[in-house]
Structure formats: C-alpha cells, structure tokens
Amino acid sequence: MAEMGISKNLKGKIFEPVELILYTEEQIEQRIEEMGRQISKDFAGKDLLVICVLKGALYFTADLIRHIDIPLSLDFIAVTSYGNSTTTSGIARLTKDLEEDVEGRHIIITEDILDTGLTMEYLVNLLKLRNPADIKICTMLDKTSRRITKAAPDYVGFTIPEHFVVGYGLDHKHRFRHIPFICTFRKDFDDEEI
Ligand code: IMP
Ligand code: MG
Predict the structure, then answer these.
(1) Ligand nearest to the Cα of 90, by number
(2) Three-class SS string for the chain?
(3) Domain 24-165 has CATH 3.40.640.10
(4) What is the mean pLDDT of the chain?
C-alpha cells in the first residue's frame, strides 16, 4: 500500500495493488491544465478533432478537453494491443472505428501511455490514409525507454521510467482504471486478493 502523504482514504479494495503513487490527482490536474492551454494556443482558428483512444485515454481526454477553450469535435477509436498481459504482443487491431470524417481536419490523438509505440504507429498510419490536414500525438504518459518505433508524441503529460502503472484510465487486466491517481502496480499482487 502506498505511504505517500495523501489525505485520501486508501483503504478500499481498488487500492490494494497500489505500490507507489507517481502522480497525485492534483499534479495530474495541474499538468493537464497546462497542456490544454498550449493546445488551445497551437490550434486556434483550426478545425480541431480530438480522437480519444479507448479505453485508457477516457479520463485524460475528458479532463484535457475541458481545459481547451477553442471549438473542437471529439471522437473515439479503439485498438487492442496488450490483451491480458503486461507485455505487448506487438500486434494492433482496430476494434472500434471513428464516426467523424477526418479529411482536411487537424487531428490530435489522445492516448493514455506510449510504450513501444506500436499502437500509435498503427493508428497514425491508418489515419494518414484518410487525408487529414495534420496529425498530432498527445499522451498522458511517455515510457520512452521501451520505444521501438519512430512514434514521437507532440504533447506529453509526464515521462515515466520503465514501470507498469495503473490508475487514471490505465488498467491491469481491464481493472483498476478508476484509481484516481497514477501509481506503480505491486509485482506481488495476487489477482485472487480482490
Ligand atoms: P504500445 O503499443 O506498446 O505503445 O502500448 C500502448 C498501450 O499499452 C497503451 O495504450 C496501454 O493500453 C498499454 N500499456 C503500456 N504500458 C502500460 C502500463 O504501464 N500500464 C497499463 N497499460 C500499459
Ligand atoms: Mg490503451
């Protein structure tokens, strides 16, 4: 259990896998506010389409766009890459496509984390075929040490070391997304504990 000076009660079952809190809710909020301000400036006067990569980027995107004060549209796309494991399979597959037409539009793809970069590379290549004006990558977390592709984010919340993290949208076997902060996952965590 985390021992950082957080006033929150961490006694709930969902907090059992928490090892170390990397970013608190307050730190996340502050960083996202800065990112929103920057994006508002960079995309002023452009037809902005924010594409949220489900499901991990759900929380990040919802918070980020509320700090963007220029008009935008929001759409969702989903890909699988990790399955149930904590190591990438290296294979991405589209499981939910966009509803919006992207041709001629300025796109920001919002993602929870860039790890190997394979998922993002797949998405960028897919969207490029639809002739957008521009594609920018915005990720809450950047695990630079594991990158094996050229995928490079234009906006980064935090750069993190090589740890498996959960919370604020990030999952372990589809659970723990709703932990409100970003934390490392206990290696000795037993799934049967829940
Ligand atoms: P990539 O294709 O290797 O860049 O992996 C990107 C995807 O893997 C992300 O969208 C996440 O869903 C997942 N992922 C990578 N690292 C972590 C992690 O530390 N915790 C939870 N999910 C992760
Ligand atoms: Mg994801």
Answers:
(1) 1
(2) CCCCCCCCCCCCHHHCCEEEEEECHHHHHHHHHHHHHHHHHHCCCCCEEEEEEECCCHHHHHHHHCCCCCCEEEEEEEEECCCCCCCCCCCCEEEECCCCCCCCCEEEEEEEEECCCHHHHHHHHHHHCCCCCEEEEEEEEECHHHCCCCCCCCEEEEECCCCCEEECCECECCECCCCCCEEEECCCCCHHHC
(3) no
(4) 91
